[in-house]
Amino acid sequence: MIEQNGDGLRVTGPMLIANASALLRAGRGFLRSRATAGELVFDLSSVEETDSSALSVIFGLLRTARDCGVTMRIAHPPASMISQAALYGVSDSLPLA
Q1: What tens digit of pLDDT does each residue of 75-96 get?
Q2: Distance between alpha carbon 1 and the CA centroid of its chain, in Å?
Q3: Tally of CA atoms within 13 A in the half-sphere of 19 that contains its CB
Q4: Burial 70-92 (b: 16+ CB within 10 A, else e)
Q5: Contact 85, 51 (CB under 8 A)
Q6: Inter-residue contact 44 to 6 (CB < 8 Å)
Q7: What is the pLDDT at residue 13?
Q8: By the 8 A CB rule, do 27 and 64 touch?
């Protein structure tokens, strides 16, 4: 589940293939509805579990944010996501807060 957290977004629960489409859709909806550009923090401190689809969601939201003039930062990524990013060679592409 993605919820608005101040001027950012927070994910609660797992980021798995079973809910990846819903997470991406909800995040994109929020990004597109923002009235102004600026910086957004994507808080993952409450994420319980991830698989490789979590990276797909993150990169999809990063593209949408860029298209909307928003700079997105990832806060508190789970260790499993960091490991997966390293495995796939995309660690340097994650804009960590």
Answers
A1: 999 999 999 999 999 999 999 9
A2: 11
A3: 15
A4: bebbbebbbebbeebbeeeeeee
A5: no
A6: no
A7: 94
A8: yes
**What are the tokens at 52?**
């490789």
43/8 Cα distance (integer angstroms): 8
State yes or no: pLDDT of 7 exceeds 80. Answer: no
* Residue found under tokens 């990063």: 62
pLDDT digits 0-9 by tens, 14-34: 999 999 999 999 999 999 887
DSSP, residue by residue, the chain: -EEEETTEEEEEEEE-TTTHHHHHHHHHHHHHH-SS-EEEEEEEEEEEEE-HHHHHHHHHHHHHHHHTTEEEEEES--HHHHHHHHHHT-GGGS-B-
Residues 84, 81: Cα–Cα separation, whole Å: 5
